């Protein structure tokens, strides 16, 4: 045979060289009338095409061929309802309208792209183009056989087939057989290719448990697939398959299967720079700018002088110390001067040469061809680099700050590429070679290799540290590595790929495990843990601080000041309630909020104008603090000449504690929410803006190298992981076991904490790698047994925030009181709160997953999210719930907003969108923590008719009146209307998008589906997963899980199983908080003040120590005055409004007197009319008859307490509610 096909059904068909058609029955081919050049069999039937591109469908009832309009050269029948093919000019088409009634379909739909062969798999289409590149089609369903878009897949194949259960097999141009591994519904493209040994093959097809292939002589082989588990002995195979090699193309081996072993040996001559790359040729220069070519192990002198030389597929190039550029003519063996000036240059793949100038400008050479190998001109790229290297998949470079960047879109025709992307870590020099290899050295002269680089992931995934001597330069070739140590000795390193199970030779240098990257990156969670060896110190303290310097200071309960010297606390004259030590010096504040700076020359305290309750000395030149009313200030003008600075600058926002870290400020507000300040520099210590960070903490400290530690309200200790210069906010929190702590501070390699009894513990930080033995645990800070208390908490962070949404467990029924009757709508959103509405429009809030709290009001739709709790009233009015807090989760009252809506949804902070009565989509602008009501509406253009909208973490989703689904791209707090719409496969009646990008919906049959594959990079996901077949009318997804309403009005809950995530979520990028982390209104300009609450001059001069002692005693009337009063006395530097900020709820309540007693009574009367009808009152309160609306309304729900005032109904309704 020349072609054969099987697939979703046991049926197998084939054609021979004469276009005869056969059906395989058992092991025999049975001739079928007709002539076809290609035949296919699948769940969508048997189809075929002739050599003239005519299309036929096999009627299995009459056993005849039916001609179908159109022309294709190859066709494939896949899952039920899906048939696709390619034309003679490689256009791609899929058949629409295939049903049981019309199995031949109704029409062809053209897809974008060009393929020479296509196959329809269970999770999407696969195909190869004329260049043998492999592609995968996403979003394919029987209702949308054309799918949504193509994605390139690593490797090259000449033919492939996708079968049931995600199987994909193919052959390459060398007639080698490959199988795709890792394919699943959630990873439909799979992860890698496995080579399967055997004789040369030119064609393959795959079914349920059967494989058919055709060799070069047209012999057909039938292969039985067997899954063999670990342990049993395999029979002797006909062909022994080789190990995984990463794919049929140029992909390197998989990380999980291979390691890199470097065998080093030193070469004869010292060099300062060396280069190899896409060719075996290796060149170098010495300290005198002499040029050498490496031949064998010997450096051969080449005439000329260069400070840097490079060798690659684009030839040999070099630059002089005067930045002159030269190209090596390999025919005449002479140097040719090229116009321009560069300090460093790199020759990469064929046709690609780039370099950097003496002022770090970046240039690439264009016009390099076989005819003009020296190229024709230089083209300037955006950005600034001190070193560049041209790799196989793009350029890599480092800038003057040692930050690493990757250039996308590079081809020989477009050597300048399309744009830069920052890469985690810092390096001083790197080189990119063939097969995606990237190696580099950091400022500590440590060697690193980039892992995970491929055509589909050209930037790779992580850095691997490779042990050995200190190195300052590295270059990489096909299987060779060259490096230069600090003494200019050149080492030649042979790269060996060692597979799993192979025995490694004893290396000269044993490489350590992965630690997350070169430079300042912390260890990866999966490879490292932090072990703290604690020991208690002698004196009890209430506060301690260390940081950017080895100096450590502390205060006790009597405000005495101590400096820690060794393990002993040495008393220092004076009295402070808080002291801090950092690269910006030693500072402190008294209990009366006076500020002092320590003069380390005279060892005396100098009083600084202003008033703060807490202060922190951070990196050099940076000191910040918070006042007694939680205003935030940073000191300006700190220099070597004026180490105490010159003035205070007020920051927006409100914090109760601040810490100045290496990459920015960290702080917590009165609600224990954590915030990070971006844009902090010595010249601009106030930074540029706050960003919210997941988790809640009561106190935290940021130290050197990006370290951040904190304690939560449960006195548990946490460490922030993933902090680096490129990710200054880090990625997640790690819980560190030990006794309860109330305070923590962190230095270079030291940690200090204070327990509930004021005992100080000194903790030495040790990074413990996988496989290393931990010291004996059991003391303070020791990691507890995993079953009792895991060392790593879920990513959500410390405190009350839940982890990233994990895999659900089982559905539970939430009980309903008979008085509630039926629920009709429910919403949770990106919160823990759950609100619902019953059949009579009464509003309820869920408490403890088992009790519904009636919230006196009537609404027809309600929503809860980070943007607040909003509702649509019976007259389509929009309302915001005010006064919600931890103590009063149901809030106090409703605030009416302009606009008329049919439905509304509260999403991430700043995103609130709804469907108007005119069936338009409007989004609220200006919603923030400071202004939760926002400032207006903006309309999103949408040509369809929307009936439901839900705003999730990555954008809003819409269901139309025709039940089609759409997703809105590009929505942010500042751009609430987004940028464009994307259609999503499937039909739903209602859906909800929640945290982590999760999306759940109700199908046309009342079933439940969840969206698979949603991530920040792919916010629409890949496919729908069936969760429940039928019986549901409404659904919502929140931080506490999934809540669904049944057709009978009941509520079911799908709780969260802690610790297993289901949504692909990148390192968090929190929505910035406009105006700061607190409720203070933002200032239009940061005001330079004389000091945050500066005090008037003292009438009687005293010594500084006396003043401090007086502060501690607090005996005089002046000292008894609150610091706010003292601040008010200070030349009116801080206005009355700033001094006593009013809660935003009060400001809102005053706004146009929207909420009045009369409106409240009218609202209650409406509630009475709705809720009193057909209610089964509880016996003990049903007789309430006072002429007060609340008595009747609450009686209807059997309530004995007023949720607003927390007053007993006995007091509110004394005449008739004594039963309560």
TrEMBL record:
<dbReference type="Pfam" id="PF19193">
    <property type="entry name" value="Tectonin"/>
</dbReference>
<keyword id="KW-0430">Lectin</keyword>
<dbReference type="GO" id="GO:0030246">
    <property type="term" value="F:carbohydrate binding"/>
</dbReference>
<feature type="compositionally biased region" description="Basic and acidic residues">
    <location>
        <begin position="1136"/>
        <end position="1145"/>
    </location>
</feature>
<dbReference type="InterPro" id="IPR051513">
    <property type="entry name" value="Tectonin_beta-prop"/>
</dbReference>
<dbReference type="InterPro" id="IPR006624">
    <property type="entry name" value="Beta-propeller_rpt_TECPR"/>
</dbReference>
<comment type="similarity">
    <text>Belongs to the tectonin family.</text>
</comment>
<dbReference type="InterPro" id="IPR003582">
    <property type="entry name" value="ShKT_dom"/>
</dbReference>
<protein>
    <submittedName>
        <fullName>Uncharacterized protein</fullName>
    </submittedName>
</protein>
<feature type="region of interest" description="Disordered">
    <location>
        <begin position="1074"/>
        <end position="1179"/>
    </location>
</feature>
């Amino acid at each position: 045979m020349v072609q054969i096909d099987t697939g979703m059904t046991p049926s197998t068909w084939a054609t021979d060289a004469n276009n005869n058609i056969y059906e395989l029955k058992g092991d025999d081919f049975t001739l079928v009338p007709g002539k076809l050049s290609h035949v296919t069999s699948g769940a969508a039937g048997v189809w075929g095409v002739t050599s003239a591109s005519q299309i036929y469908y096999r009627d299995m009832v009459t056993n005849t061929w039916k001609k179908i309009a159109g022309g294709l050269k190859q066709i494939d029948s896949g899952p039920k309802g899906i048939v696709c093919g390619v034309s003679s000019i490689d256009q791609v088409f899929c058949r629409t309208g295939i049903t049981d009634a019309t199995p031949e379909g109704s029409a062809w739909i053209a897809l974008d792209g060009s393929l020479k062969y296509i196959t329809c798999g269970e999770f999407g289409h696969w195909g190869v183009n004329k260049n043998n590149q492999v592609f995968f089609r996403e979003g394919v369903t029987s209702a949308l056989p054309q799918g949504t878009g193509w994605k390139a897949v690593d490797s090259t194949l000449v033919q492939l087939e996708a079968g049931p259960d995600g199987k994909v097999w193919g052959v390459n141009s060398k007639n080698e057989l490959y199988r795709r591994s890792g394919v699943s519904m959630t990873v439909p493209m799979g992860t890698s290719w496995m080579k399967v040994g055997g004789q040369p093959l030119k064609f393959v097809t795959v079914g349920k448990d059967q494989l058919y292939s055709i060799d070069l002589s047209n012999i057909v082989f039938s292969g039985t697939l067997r899954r063999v588990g670990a342990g049993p002995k395999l029979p002797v195979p006909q062909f022994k398959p080789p190990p995984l090699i990463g794919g049929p193309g140029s992909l390197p081996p998989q990380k999980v299967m291979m390691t890199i072993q470097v065998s080093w040996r030193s070469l004869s001559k010292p060099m300062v720079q060396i280069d190899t790359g896409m060719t075996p040729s290796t060149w170098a220069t010495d300290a005198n700018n002499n040029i050498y070519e490496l031949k064998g192990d010997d450096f051969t002198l080449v005439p000329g002088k260069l400070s840097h030389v490079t060798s690659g597929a684009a030839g040999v190039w070099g630059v002089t110390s005067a930045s002159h550029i030269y190209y090596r003519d390999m025919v005449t063996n002479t140097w040719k001067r090229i116009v321009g000036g560069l300090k460093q240059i790199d020759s990469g793949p064929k046709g690609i040469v780039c370099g950097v100038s003496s002022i770090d400008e970046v240039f690439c050479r264009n016009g390099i061809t076989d005819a003009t190998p020296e190229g024709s001109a230089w083209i300037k790229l955006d950005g600034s680099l001190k070193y560049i290297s041209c790799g196989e998949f793009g350029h890599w470079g480092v800038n003057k700050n040692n930050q690493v960047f990757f250039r996308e879109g590079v081809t020989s025709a477009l050597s300048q590429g399309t744009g830069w992307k920052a890469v985690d870590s810092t390096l001083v020099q790197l080189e990119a070679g063939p097969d995606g290899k990237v190696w580099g050295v950091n400022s500590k002269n440590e060697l690193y290799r980039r892992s995970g680089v491929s055509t589909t992931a050209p930037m790779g995934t992580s850095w691997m540290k490779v042990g050995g001597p200190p190195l300052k330069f590295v270059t990489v070739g096909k299987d060779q590595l060259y490096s230069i140590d600090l003494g200019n000795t050149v080492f030649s390193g042979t790269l060996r790929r060692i597979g799993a199970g192979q025995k490694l030779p004893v290396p000269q240098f044993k490489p350590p495990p992965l630690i997350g990257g070169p430079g300042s990156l912390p260890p990866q969670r999966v490879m490292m843990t932090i072990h703290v060896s604690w020991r208690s110190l002698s004196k009890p303290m209430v506060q301690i601080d260390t940081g950017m310097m080895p100096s450590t200071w502390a205060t006790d309960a009597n405000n005495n000041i101590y400096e820690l010297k060794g393990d002993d606390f040495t008393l220092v004259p004076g009295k402070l309630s808080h002291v801090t030590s950092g690269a910006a010096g030693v500072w402190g504040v008294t209990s009366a909020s006076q500020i002092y700076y320590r003069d380390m020359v005279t060892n005396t305290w100098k009083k600084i104008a202003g008033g703060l309750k807490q202060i922190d000395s951070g990196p050099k030149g940076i000191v910040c603090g918070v006042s007694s009313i939680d205003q935030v200030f940073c000191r300006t003008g700190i220099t070597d000449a004026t180490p105490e600075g010159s003035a205070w600058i007020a920051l927006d926002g409100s914090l109760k504690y601040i810490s100045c870290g290496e990459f920015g400020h960290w702080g917590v507000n009165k609600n224990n929410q954590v915030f990070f300040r971006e844009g902090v520099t010595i010249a601009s210590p106030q930074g540029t803006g706050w960003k919210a960070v997941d988790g809640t903490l009561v106190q935290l400290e940021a130290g050197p190298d990006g370290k951040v530690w904190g304690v939560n309200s449960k006195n548990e200790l946490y460490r922030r992981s993933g902090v680096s210069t490129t990710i200054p906010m880090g990625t997640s929190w790690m819980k560190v076991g030990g006794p309860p702590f109330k305070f923590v501070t962190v230095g270079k390699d030291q940690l200090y904490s204070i327990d509930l009894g004021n005992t100080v513990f000194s903790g030495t930080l040790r990074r413990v790698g996988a496989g290393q033995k931990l010291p004996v645990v059991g003391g303070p800070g020791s990691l507890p047994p995993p079953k009792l208390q895991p060392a790593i908490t879920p990513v959500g962070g410390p405190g009350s925030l839940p982890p990233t949404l994990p895999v659900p467990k089982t559905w539970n029924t939430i009980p309903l009181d008979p008085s509630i009757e039926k629920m009709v709508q429910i919403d949770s959103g990106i919160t823990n709160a759950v609100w619902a509405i019953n059949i009579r429009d009464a509003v309820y809030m869920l408490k403890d997953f088992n009790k519904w709290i009636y919230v006196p009001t009537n609404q027809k739709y309600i929503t809860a999210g980070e943007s607040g709790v909003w509702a649509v009233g019976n007259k389509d009015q929009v309302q915001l719930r005010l006064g919600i807090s931890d103590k009063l989760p149901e809030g106090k009252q409703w605030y009416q907003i302009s606009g008329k809506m049919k439905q509304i949804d509260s999403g991430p902070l700043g995103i609130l969108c709804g469907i108007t009565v005119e069936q338009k989509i409007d989004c609220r602008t200006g919603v923030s923590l400071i202004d939760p009501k926002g400032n207006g509406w903006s309309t999103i253009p949408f040509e369809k008719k929307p009936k439901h909208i839900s705003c999730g973490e990555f954008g809003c989703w819409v269901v139309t009146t025709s039940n089609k689904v759409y997703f809105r791209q590009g929505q942010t707090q500042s751009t609430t209307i987004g940028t464009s719409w994307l259609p999503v496969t499937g039909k739903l009646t209602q859906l909800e998008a929640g945290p982590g990008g999760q999306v759940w919906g109700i199908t046309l049959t009342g079933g439940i589906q969840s969206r698979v594959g949603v991530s920040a990079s792919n916010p629409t996901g890949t496919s729908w997963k069936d969760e429940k077949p039928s019986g549901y009318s409404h659904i919502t997804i929140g931080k506490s899980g999934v809540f669904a309403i049944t057709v009978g009005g009941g509520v079911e809950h799908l709780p969260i199983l802690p610790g297993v995530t289901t949504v692909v979520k990148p390192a968090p990028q929190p929505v910035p908080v406009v105006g700061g982390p607190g409720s203070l209104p933002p200032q239009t300009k940061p005001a330079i003040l004389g000091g945050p609450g500066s005090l008037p001059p003292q009438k009687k001069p005293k010594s500084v120590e006396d003043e401090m002692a007086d502060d501690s005693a607090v005996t005089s009337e002046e000292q008894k005055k609150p610091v706010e009063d003292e601040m008010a006395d200070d030349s009116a530097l801080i206005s009355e409004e700033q001094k006593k900020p009013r809660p935003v709820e009060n400001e809102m309540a005053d706004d146009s007197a929207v909420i009045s007693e009369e409106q409240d009574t009218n609202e209650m009367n409406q509630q009475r009319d709705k809720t009193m009808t057909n209610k089964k009152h509880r016996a003990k309160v049903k007789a309430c008859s006072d002429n007060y609306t609340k008595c009747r309304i609450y009686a209807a729900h059997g309530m004995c307490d007023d949720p607003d005032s927390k007053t007993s109904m006995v007091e509110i309704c004394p005449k008739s509610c004594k039963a309560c």
